[in-house]
Amino acid sequence: MSPLPPGLRVAIVLGSLRLAGAERQALLLARHLQHAHDARVTVCGPPPEDAAAAWCRQQGIPLLRLPLFESRRPWLCRLRMRRAAFHLRTLTPAVVAAFTWTANVAVARYRGTIGASTVLWGQRDAGINRLVPALESAALARVDLAVANSPPALDALRAAGVAEAKLALVPNAVELPPPVADRAAWRHRLGITDEAVAGVMLAHLHANKDHATLLRAWAVLARGAPAADPVLILAGRDDGGLAALRALAQELGIAGLVRFPGAVDDIGGLLAASDLGVFSSRSEGCPNGVLEAMAAGLAVAATDLPGIRWALGAETPLAPPGDAVALAALAGRLIGDPTLRAALGTRNRAAIAERFAPLPALEAYVAAIARASDR
Question: In this predicted model, what pLDDT tens digit does every residue of 10-39 receive, in sequence order?
Answer without folding.
Answer: 999 998 888 788 888 999 999 999 999 999
